[in-house]
Specification:
Its EC number is 2.5.1.7. Pathway: Cell wall biogenesis; peptidoglycan biosynthesis. This is UDP-N-acetylglucosamine 1-carboxyvinyltransferase. InterPro entries: Enolpyruvate_Tfrase_dom, Enolpyruvate_Tfrase_sf, MurA_subfamily, RNA3'P_cycl/enolpyr_Trfase_a/b, UDP_GlcNAc_COvinyl_MurA. With 429 residues, the protein is α+β, with helices and mostly antiparallel strands. It has two domains: 205 residues, Enolpyruvate transferase domain (UDP-n-acetylglucosamine1-carboxyvinyl-transferase, Chain, Alpha-beta prism); 208 residues, Enolpyruvate transferase domain (UDP-n-acetylglucosamine1-carboxyvinyl-transferase, Chain). Helix content is 30%, strand content 27%. The protein has 13 helices and 23 strands. A four-stranded mixed beta sheet has the order 21-22-1-23, covered by helices on one side. The chain has a four-stranded mixed beta sheet with strand order 2-14-16-15. Strands 4-5-3-13 form a four-stranded mixed beta sheet. The protein is elongated and about 60 Å long. The N terminus is likely disordered. Bound molecules: ligand EPZ. Ligand EPZ binds next to helix 1, helix 5, helix 6 and helix 12.
């Protein structure tokens, strides 16, 4: 089965709406767990087997990077077998790292294992400026000196002190993951991370590292303690389901569902969304990792004011999708974006469809309309693409979404799942 998804030309999606969703799908493994866990496989040469890995463009980019670093990686259905292929190479090609920010997290593990590394500096993307200063400042405290030259980060390990305390200025997911994945192999060093991220993907990464022999406490809280060890070992591990994919299909069900059933959903991971559903008045049942949404008339729903926040707050990665729902609820709602303050590229596109949304600072004010109408749209990033796809399925008439391939970075088996929900879309290049 051909697994590699290469994105050369950006494709388009054509949709005729409005449509109704009805059916049952299973949520895939988490992209944002798979990526940091794959980066962490650089911490050992022993064999690692990972299960429930989603077949996504981003995962294949990470595989390409690990292969460049000396790994041999084989797919077996939705599992990956990761083995050492050659001596570790810690000078990585520019392209794949530049293409995907999460790959920057290979820098720490490569530098600890090889004493040095050369990795491209990740860029920002359309959701906002995305510096890596927290990463580099934390790595420095762990004994890794870095210099930026010609778009690359050149790093070298100069030795770590016995005790390190790192307090993150903001609970950054990427910086927390990067520093944990580095500190675990600092033999004899005790690292205390405070104000760190508490996302379920962090807990999953730590459970994976512990299964390799790492010593970690406090994961899932804002204070994590890591006692570095000399060596880490091979393991077999199953990653968590994707809470953002689950949230996306749940919102789709709330907007156009008759009855939409999502299997393999962890309730604790989507509490904040379920809270909002209750405030709005959406009918849902959550039992035994199965979430069922029964659509009701938007006229019966209530507007709300929402703020995005780090976990356990409402995730920024569901903000664009939720905005589509709120744009169809009578009255005035608002969304304040606190994680990526300029993450509003989807607003103009939704207004092109007849939504009434205006942005003031980092708050979007949404006045509900009774319907959206189809239009030619531009997708700018992964979650904006998902939001525009949902909007096009409920809008009257034809919509063309250009530059839509972003969506393959984060939604596995998209066409198959939409078909199972009775939804029709057409993809073309
Ligand atoms: C992770 O990105 C996710 N990506 C993002 O999901 C998600 O939006 C984000 O966390 C927030 O939840 C992956 O897990 C692969 P951050 P990350 O570091 O780690 C600032 C998706 O759609 N910051 O928590 O890059 C930063 O600018 C993606 O799946 C610094 O200033 O996010 C932002 O404002 C999109 N300096 C805030 O912190 C740093 O060194 C949070 O960023 C690092 C971050």
């Amino acid at each position: 089965m051909e697994h590699r998804l290469e994105i050369e030309t950006m494709g388009k999606i054509k949709v005729f709406g409005p449509q109704r969703a009805n059916g049952e799908i299973t949520i895939s493994g988490s992209k944002n767990s798979a990526l940091p866990i794959l980066a962490a496989t650089l911490l050992t040469d022993e064999k690692i087997i990972l299960h429930n890995i989603p077949n996504l463009a981003d995962v294949n980019t990470m595989i390409e990077i690990l292969e460049n670093a000396g790994k041999k990686i084989t797919w077996d259905e939705s599992s990956l077998i990761i083995e050492r292929y050659s001596n570790m190479n810690s000078v990585l090609p520019y392209g794949p790292v530049r293409r995907m920010r999460a790959s920057f997290n290979v820098l720490g593990p490569l530098t600890i294992r090889n004493g040095y590394a050369k990795v491209a500096l990740p860029g920002g993307c359309s959701i906002g400026v995305r510096p890596v200063n927290f990463h580099l400042e934390g790595l420095k405290k762990l004994g890794i000196e870095s210099q930026i030259e010609h778009g690359f980060t050149h790093s070298k390990f100069i030795g770590a002190p016995e005790k390190v305390h790192i307090s993150l200025p903001f609970p950054s997911v990427g910086a927390t993951e990067h520093l944990i994945t580095t500190a675990v192999l600092l033999d004899g060093t005790e690292t205390i991370l405070t104000n760190c991220a508490q996302e379920p993907e962090i807990v999953d990464l730590c459970n994976f590292l512990i299964s390799m022999g790492a010593k970690i406490e406090g994961h899932g809280t804002s204070n994590i303690k890591i006692c570095g060890v000399k060596e880490l070992y091979g393991t077999e591990y199953t990653i968590i389901p994707d809470r953002i994919e689950a949230g996306t299909y749940a919102i789709l069900g709330a907007i156009m569902g008759e009855k939409v059933t999502l299997n393999n959903v962890i309730e604790e991971h989507i509490f904040s969304l379920l809270d909002i559903f209750e405030k709005i008045g959406i009918n849902y049942t959550m039992k035994n990792n199965i979430l069922t949404i029964e659509g009701i008339s938007k006229l019966e729903l209530s507007p709300v004011d929402i703020e995005t926040a780090t976990f356990p707050g409402f995730p920024t990665d569901l903000q664009p999708q939720l905005m589509v729902l709120l744009s169809l609820i009578p009255g005035r709602s608002s969304i304040t974006e606190n994680v990526f303050k300029t993450r509003f590229n989807h607003v103009d596109e939704l207004n092109r469809m007849g939504a009434k949304i205006f942005v003031e600072g980092n708050t979007a004010i949404i006045t509900g309309v009774t319907k959206l109408s189809g239009a030619p749209l531009e997708a700018t990033d992964l979650r904006a693409s998902a939001a525009l796809l949902i909007a096009s399925l409920i809008a009257d008439g034809e919509t063309i979404i250009n530059n839509v391939d972003h969506i393959f970075r984060g939604y596995e088996k998209l066409f198959e799942k939409l078909e199972k929900l009775g939804l029709e879309i057409e993809y073309y290049e």
